[in-house]
Structure formats: C-alpha cells, structure tokens
Amino acid sequence: MKKIKTIVVNLRNVIRGMKFLPRTAISAALALVAVLAVAIVADTAYNFMASHSGLMMIAGIIGGQVFLYAKELGRLKNGLKRLMADPTAAANGQTQAPKEKAPKPAKAAASTASFATVAKDLAKAFSTPVDEDEDEEDQESFEDGEDDI
Length: 149
Prior knowledge:
The chain is an all-alpha fold. It has helices at 2-16, 20-51, 53-68, 70-85, 87-91, 108-127, 133-136.
C-alpha cells in the first residue's frame, strides 16, 4: 500500500510541474482509467453475486449470526484454546464450566403497581353513569320531506 501511495504522490508531483494542456489531458486520462476500473470491479462483483445468489444469502445469514454472537464465539474460542492446552483434563472430566452471572430479578412490583392504578382508573371511568339526556339534546332529523322536491 505504501508503494502505491508513493507512486501516486510522485505522479501528482510530476503532473503539477507540467503546463495546462498536458496536465489536463493526463489527469482526464487517469480519471477515465479510475472510473473504468471501478466499473469493471463493480460489474464483476455484481455478476458474481447474481450467479451465486444462494451462496450470498447463506453468507449473509452466517455473517449476521457471527455479528450477533461475537462475544459467545470469543468464549468458545477461549475454551477450545484451554482444551488444546491441557487435553488430559478434558479426558478426566475436569473441565470447568464457565461461571455465569445470575440474572438480576426484574422490578415487577413497580410495573404491576402502576398497571393496577391504571386498571382502577379505567374501571372508575367506565362505571360512572352517563346522563342519557345529554345525547338527545341536539339531535337533528334527517328525513326526506315532500317539500324538498
């Protein structure tokens, strides 16, 4: 990578020392080559993925699982390293299970208390009687009359 960087820096320094027209022609040609290289790589990658779509789906699923369970894979890797370091301990049944932390108890009391108060408030709201006269006060009649024709 360092060689490529030095080549690019040296090429840039050489081009900067030229006059306007040669500098423009060389930079335009280099830009065309860069765009063609990116297009060729993108087209090749697209064609590969299109012809191997099943493989790409499987790779995506496996990659997602590796991303999600990276910590557990690290633990498994460490366990395998210990096993390879002392295989006789595994044969004798002396392997130690990893110590797992006990889960903390959930704070159910606070959530059930708030749920209980909400339930009581709803019960009170639905149990209050509604005056039937309020609904009938402003009732309009939408009947067809003979005068409307």
